[in-house]
Amino acid sequence: MRSRIMPAMMIDWFSPAQCVGYVAFVLGVGSFLQTDDRRFKLFMAGECLSYIVHFALLGNPTAVASSSMSLLRSLLALRTRALWVAALVVAANLALGLALAQQPRDWLPLAASCLGTLALFLLQGIPMRLVMLCGTALWIANNLLAGSVGGTALEVVVAGVNLLTIARMARRRNANNLA
After folding, report:
1. What is the pLDDT of residues 140-167, one digit of tens each?
2. Are the CB atoms for 103 and 94 separated by under 8 Å?
3. Is 12 helix (H, G, I), strand (E, B) or coil?
4. Residue predicted with more confidence, 43 or 25
5. 6-23 burial: b if 16+ Cβ within 10 Å, else e
6. Which DSSP state fits 147?
């Protein structure tokens, strides 16, 4: 089924798809509240699993593929930071894009997943969260176009929570540098 733009007035706010999106919302916010990178990745894996179901129910195959790759990369990033693993995940995202993308906007979740992969494998702390913030912006655009109420709310709140967590981490780092 092709993804489509759905006007807000036509959205069933309590459909199974939207309810699963709300679960992703809770897990995503929980993820970006974490200052511990391991807990961040665990919560993110749960968010990704919810997103897979959510976007499958919405009929958005590139977002399902991207979320599946994001789940895999979150789990792999708990075990390794190997550059070759990150490169494989990015290559898989690009291959999925070539196979599934039918229009330019279909690349939004795939690009977000690539950014997230690079962030989780190559970065830590504040730099990781800043790159994830760029991916969040791409997810906001995707979710608006897909008619995802929970997903859009999630990513907007995640952006705000991520910025607050970055500020908390920066304050803590500055306080430690002064001590």
Report:
1. 998 899 888 777 887 899 899 999 999 9
2. no
3. coil
4. 43
5. beeeeeeeeeebbbbbbb
6. T
Please name which of 150, 156, 154 lies closest in space to residue 11, comparing C-alpha atoms: 150
Q: What's the chain's length in residues?
A: 179
For the segment 77-131, what is each residue's pLDDT rounded down to a tens digit? 999 999 999 999 999 989 988 998 899 999 998 899 899 999 989 999 999 999 9
DSSP 64-96: HHHHHHHHHHHHHHHH---HHHHHHHHHHHHHH
Asked if 10 contacts 58 with a C-beta cutoff of 8 angstroms, the reply is no
Alpha-carbon distance of 80 to 137, in angstroms, equals 26
